[in-house]
Each structure stands twice: as structure tokens, then as C-alpha cells.
Specification:
This protein is of the alpha+beta class and about 450 residues long. It has 4 helices and 16 strands. It folds into 2 domains: about 20-85; about 90-435, Beta Barrel (Porin), CATH 2.40.160.10. The protein has a 16-stranded antiparallel beta barrel with strand order 1-2-3-4-5-6-7-8-9-10-11-12-13-14-15-16. The radius of gyration is 42 Å and the shape is elongated.
């Protein structure tokens, strides 16, 4: 093919292809226009969605703020804060006691207590297992940030039926279902640092208490049992004196020994003043007022001295002395006095031993003996902590006494069968106790 022919054919081809190229360019341009329109629509939708999300986030923020504010001021948060301020604790204890005087089977109940109930106030039955205490404590403590609060404790078991106002049947057989309210009082801390309590509260007098874990020994002593009240119903104020280490308390209660209801409308006044140093303390306590079973003219008074000494982390000791006098219309004015010395030594973190030596003198038949009487008691106790909360105790106790101008018939002896027959001068008991604190 000649050069001229090739140029001719190329010219024809260009004229034929030009319309097709122009048509294809028009289609691409149209498609691009459609795509741009769609992208513009998508951008509008995205902007609308972003606006909606912004509004939603603002609403969520407002709702969260409202919920937080409601949580801080609403009833549910008040209840939660109140529950967080409550402290709850307690313990369970059980024991077994064997009387070496070996009382007969029909004398096991109250066989350990003696002629006038002078011994073993909370473990009266011989050769018996006993569910002693299921004790709960609940408190809302008070301080400068929370000035109003309360304290209450409740006990079930054998001990509960033997305490004042404990609901035990006449025969003492309650099956462990006895109930006792130990304390139930409102407390308020004033701006002056004085605390007021109104309701039922423990006595200020003495060293030992009814609560099992708080004592060196398993059994309570003669001084605790014969000379001291346990609790009161009334109103009490307490606080610290300006001098460092000194504290005081003053209360008006229904009766010296009874809580409520008493047999007359007289009242008793109870007071305390004490000093505490680093390793020792001295406390003078007293109560004077209406006698339990007398009229308004019959009065009873107790002077109580309590000294404590804790020279180191292992040794702890206390000395408790009481003088008890009645001022009645009959003119007999019976009186009694007693002293108890006790101490515990911790050999290590798990095991400790405790001793308690006591003497009580009964002048002019204050406790119901035929004549003046003298009583002694020696108690030895070993305690062992199986765990942080579980404690085992073992104890041996010897009680002895004499009565002036009368036979020394103070305790049950083997062979004594009649309910009112006591022929022995002394008794020895062996006991074991288990306590779990929670």
C-alpha cells in the first residue's frame, strides 16, 4: 500500500471514531455527576447524624448528672450511707461443767451454785453440756462528724435466762431459747464533748461482765455475783475532765439492782471518776439509791474500786474491791464486802493462763446465810486460740466457806438428795468452753 493510501484510510478512521469518543466522554461525565450528587447526599446525612449524636450525648450527660445528684441526696443513698456506718459483731459460746462433789442425778440442776446462789452465776448445772451464749452487737458509733447514734445487744441461750430480765421459765428449762436485751440506748455527743446515753446500759461497777469473750476466766466470780449489779435503765452523761487522763460519768437509774419495772418510784444515782496512764488505771465507782425489794425509805449503796495494770503486751492484771451496805427501816443494815485479784499471762499469740483469787465477807446475813459468813474462791483458766476467731478454754475452780455459829453447809455433797439439803463446806468444779467471735 502506498503512503498516500495509508493517509487516506487513517483519515477515514478518525472521522468514524470521533463521534464514538465524544459519546463515551458524555457518559463518563454523566456518571461522575450522579456520583457527586450521591456523595453530597451522604455528606448531608452524615452531618445530620453527627448533629443527632451530639444532641444525644448532651442528653446523656444531663441524665448522668441528674442521676449522680439523686444518688447523693436521694433516699437510697441515705440508707446506703447509714448501713455503711453500722458496726455489727458477736459470738457463740458453749460449755461443759463437771462437779467433783458428784451430786445425785436429781440434784444436777443448780448443783454448782451453793446454798444462796453464791457461786457459778452462769454455769449453775452440774455434769451438763450448755449452750451459753449467742450474742449480737450492733452500733452506730458517734464522733464529731456523726454526733447521734445508738448501741444495742441481744443474747440467746442459757446465760440470757440467768441475767436480769432474762425470760426463763420457773424450772429453768428453756431449751436454750432464753432471750436477753443487754443494752439498748440512744447516744449523742454534744459540742462540749459530753456524751449522753438514754435507755438500758451496762453498769459502771466491777471488772467482769456477762459477755463471755471479755473475761479472763470462764466462770464469773463471787464479787461479781454477790456484790455488783449488771445493767441499768436510765440516763447517763460521761466525758473527759480538762486534766489529761481523767474521765467521769454520772447516771440516774431506776434502781440499784433492778432495771424495769421496779417496785417503787425511787431512783438511784451512779457515778464514776477514773484516771488512765500508759500501763495502769484507777477507777472509783459508786451507786446509791432505792433498794430492789424495799420501799422508798430502804436504800442500798455500793462503793467500787477497780485498778488495772498492763506492764507489757503479755501480762494484764486487775484488782476489784467492793463495799455493799443496806440502809433499811428495820435497823439491821446488813453489809458485805469483797475483793478479787485476777491476772492473765500470754505465753505467745495463741495460749494464755489466768488466775483469780477472791474473798467475800457477809456481815449480818446480807446474802441470807444463817449468820455472818466468809467465802473464798480460787480459779485457774487456760485459753488457746485455734484460729483468729475460735478460742478454747479449760478451767478448774475451788469454792470454800464458813458460817459463824452454824454448820458450814454451803454446797451439795454426794448423796444429798433433797432440794434444800447442803452438807459440804467446799466444792471443786472443772469446766471447758468454746467461743467463736465474728
Amino acid at each position: 500500500m502506498t503512503r498516500r493510501a495509508m493517509i487516506g484510510w487513517f483519515t477515514v478512521l478518525c472521522w468514524v471514531s470521533l463521534p464514538l469518543a465524544v459519546s463515551a466522554a458524555d457518559d463518563v461525565e454523566a456518571q461522575l455527576g450522579v456520583m457527586q450528587e450521591r456523595m453530597s447526599q451522604l455528606e448531608d446525612r452524615l452531618e445530620a447524624t453527627e448533629d443527632q449524636l451530639t444532641v444525644a450525648n448532651e442528653r446523656l450527660g444531663e441524665q448522668r448528672s441528674m442521676l449522680e445528684k439523686a444518688a447523693q441526696t436521694g433516699p437510697s443513698s441515705g440508707l446506703a450511707a447509714f448501713l455503711e456506718s453500722i458496726e455489727i459483731g458477736g459470738w457463740v459460746s458453749a460449755s461443759y461443767w463437771y462437779n467433783l462433789n458428784d451430786p445425785s442425778n436429781d440434784r444436777l440442776m443448780n448443783a454448782n451454785v451453793g446454798t444462796v446462789g453464791q457461786s457459778h452465776p452462769f454455769s449453775p448445772d452440774a455434769n451438763q453440756f450448755s449452750f451459753d451464749q449467742l450474742w449480737f452487737e450492733i452500733e452506730r458509733p458517734i464522733d464529731e462528724g456523726n454526733r447521734a447514734g445508738f448501741f444495742a445487744d441481744i443474747a440467746f441461750g442459757k446465760t440470757a435466762g440467768l441475767l436480769p430480765d432474762g425470760n426463763t421459765p420457773a424450772d429453768g428449762r428453756a431449751g436454750g431459747n432464753n432471750l436477753y436485751i443487754g443494752s439498748a440506748y440512744v447516744q449523742y455527743l454534744t459540742d462540749l464533748g459530753i456524751t449522753f446515753k438514754a435507755g438500758k446500759f451496762p453498769t459502771l461497777i466491777g471488772a467482769e461482765v456477762a459477755q463471755a469473750p471479755a473475761n479472763f476466766n470462764i466462770s464469773r466470780g463471787l464479787v461479781y455475783n454477790l456484790l455488783q449489779p449488771i445493767d441499768h435503765v436510765g440516763i447517763m452523761a460521761s466525758g473527759e475532765l480538762p486534766a489529761e487522763g481523767w474521765d467521769w460519768a454520772l447516771a440516774v437509774v431506776n434502781d440499784v439492782f433492778e432495771t424495769q419495772t421496779t417496785l417503787n418510784d425511787g431512783k438511784a444515782v451512779m457515778g464514776h471518776i477514773g484516771y488512765a496512764a500508759n500501763t495502769w488505771s484507777a477507777n472509783l465507782n459508786g451507786i446509791w439509791g432505792t433498794d430492789t425489794a424495799g420501799n422508798d425509805n430502804d436504800k442500798r449503796g455500793i462503793i467500787d474500786v477497780l485498778l488495772t495494770w498492763d506492764p507489757n503486751e503479755r501480762l494484764s492484771m486487775w484488782l476489784n474491791a467492793d463495799y455493799n451496805v443496806d440502809d433499811d427501816d428495820g435497823g439491821s443494815d446488813p453489809s458485805a464486802y469483797g475483793v478479787a485479784l485476777a491476772g492473765r499471762y500470754a505465753w505467745n499469740d495463741r495460749i494464755g493462763t489466768a488466775l483469780r483469787l477472791e474473798y467475800v465477807g457477809d456481815d449480818r446475813a446480807a446474802f441470807g446465810f444463817p449468820d455472818e459468813a466468809d467465802l473464798w474462791s480460787l480459779t485457774a483458766t487456760v485459753d488457746y486460740s485455734l484460729t483468729e476467731h475460735l478460742i478454747l478454754k479449760g478451767e478448774i475452780r475451788h469454792d470454800q466457806g464458813q458460817i459463824d455459829k452454824s454448820p458450814d453447809h454451803l454446797f451439795i455433797e454426794d448423796g444429798d438428795r433433797l432440794p434444800d439439803t447442803y452438807t459440804d463446806q467446799d466444792q471443786t468444779t472443772i469446766g471447758a468452753q468454746v467461743i467463736y467471735e465474728f
